[in-house]
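Memo to structure team: turn this sequence into C-alpha cells by end of day. - J.P.
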Amino acid sequence: METRFNLFDSPTAAKLAKRFYATSQVMEKSPLPKPLQDLVSLRISQINGCGWCVDIHTKEAAAAGETPLRLNLVATWRHSTVFTETERAALALAEEGTRITAPGEVVSDATWDAARAQFDDDQLGTLICLIAMMNATNRMSLIPNMLGGSYEPGMFAALE
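Reply from structure team:
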C-alpha cells in the first residue's frame, strides 16, 4: 500500500488542513482535558480504521504521559477497569457519534444523559466539535490512503 496523494501538494487542501490543525489548537486550550481529548481522538480513529490518525494520537498521548496500559485498552474500554466515569461517558458519546451512518440515527438518550451529567456546556460543546472534527480528519487521511507508522510527536508544530 502506498499513500495516494499528499494534501499539502494542493495549495487549497494545504490551507484547509492548516485550518483543521488550528481548530485542534483551539480545542487543546479548551476546558475539556487534553488527555481525554487524546483518548477520544484515538478511539474515533480506531473505529474508522485510520492508521495515520491512530499513529498520531497514540504517540502524542504517550508523549504527554498517558500509560501504555490505558492506550492499549481504549479499543476495549467497556471491558476495562482503567477509565473513569467521565472518560467512559466521553468514549460512549464518541462511539455513537462516529457510528451515525443512516438517516435518522442519533446518539441514544442514555449516552447523551451520561455525557450531560459529566460535562459543563463548554466542555460538552467542545467534545461534540472534537467528535465531528476527528471524523472529518479521519476521512481526510483515509481517502488519500495516508499510512500509519511514520509520525513523530510534535511533527505538526510547524503548521502553527
